[in-house]
Amino acid sequence: GSNDTADEAVRSTCDDATVCKRVSCSLPMLTLPVPNFPLCQLMSVQAINGVVLLIGYYARVKAVNILLDAFIKKTSCNCQIINLGAGLDTTFWRLQDQNLLPKKYFEVDFPMIVMRKIHLIKTKPPLSKPIIETNSNSSLLIDGSNMDSDRYAIIGQDLRDLPALMERLKKFGLDTNLPTLLLAECVLVYITPEKSTELIKWASTTFHTTMFINYEQVNMTDRFGQVMIENLQRRQCHLAGVDICQTLDTQKNRFLLNGWDHANAMDMMTVYNSLPQADIQRYV
Ligand code: SAM
């Protein structure tokens, strides 16, 4: 049906995210010829001499990592992370590598995406080894669209069905008394405002101590916003949750009006400018 088609278009965005993250991670400030990377081009904010600086992705990856690490260190790893709409994100391996694994790292995405990710993990030892090493059992528990181990669970579940989401998370060992960090990177834009509000409320009432990192587009009325919207529309990907005029204040209020005590919002140029200067100067 048309719902399936719409969801399929939304699922396809996890590949855009992965490609852009990969290039921006492998070289923090990468310059690329424009025609080769149309999607990365959309995400960038500066074009110099026909090359594109991936400032947007660089700032996003850096800033999210800084916040994640601060939360984990503050709790001495005695916490949980739930990555909502995680796609093919590789944060688990980074945290494992840096000795910053929380008690448990959960990911949720559509079953179809999770199945792809589990397949990749199963077939690539550099991905499966760190999970097995942190597991008391030498084999991973994989059932259809879920994978479970001591420190990492990947759950195939639509985020718009909260009772089912809660049931799954509990089944895989969620502890609502542990400090919990929720992360949604470019995910809520694909969910209707009603459904994302439910999710934000659920997060504010379910955990004893919690923080929510939400990264998404605001003010899509500028040139970059328009190009991005056109590109998604061409692929019939519906941005169900985007009011193209939303501001940092509407973002903040979304949380403050739905059970959260504090909320802060920053635009990515401000984030970029507040990143550790030594890193930035090396590349600009
Ligand atoms: N957060 C990842 C990242 O930053 O690399 C992926 C971002 S990608 C743009 C959006 C992801 O959200 C996709 O993997 C998509 O399948 C997932 N997603 C969107 N709507 C969802 C829903 N209702 N339930 C579960 N996952 C959803």
Mean pLDDT: 82
Q: Helix count?
A: 13
Main β-sheet, spatial strand arrangement: 6-7-8-5-4-9-10
- Topology, number of strands: 10
Q: Which ions and ligands are bound to the chains?
A: S-adenosylmethionine
Radius of gyration: 19 Å
**What is the straight-line distance between the termini?**
48 Å
CATH architecture: 3-Layer(aba) Sandwich
Summarize the structure.
The protein is α/β, with parallel strands linked by helices. It has one domain (2-273): Rossmann fold, CATH 3.40.50.150.
Q: Could you walk me through the main structural features you see in this protein, from its secondary elements to its overall organization?
A:
The chain is an alpha/beta fold. The chain has one domain: Rossmann fold (3-Layer(aba) Sandwich). The chain is built from 13 helices and ten strands. The strands form two sheets. It has a seven-stranded mixed sheet with strand order 6-7-8-5-4-9-10, covered by helices on one side. It has a three-stranded antiparallel sheet with strand order 1-3-2, with no helix packed on it. A hairpin with a 3-residue loop joins strand 7 and strand 8. Helix 4 packs across helix 12 and helix 6 crosses helix 7. The longest helix has 20 residues. It is globular and about 50 Å long.
Features:
284 residues; alpha/beta; Rossmann fold; 7-stranded mixed beta sheet; 3-stranded antiparallel beta sheet; 13 helices; globular; binds S-adenosylmethionine
Layout of helices and strands:
Elements: H1 2-11, H2 13-26, E1 31-33, H3 38-43, E2 46-48, E3 51-53, H4 55-74, E4 80-84, H5 91-97, E5 104-109, H6 111-123, H7 125-133, E6 141-143, E7 146-148, E8 152-156, H8 162-171, E9 180-185, H9 193-206, E10 210-215, H10 223-234, H11 248-256, H12 268-274, H13 277-283
Parallel strand pairs: 4-5, 4-9, 5-8, 9-10
Antiparallel strand pairs: 1-3, 2-3, 6-7, 7-8
Helix pairs in contact: 2-4, 4-12, 6-7
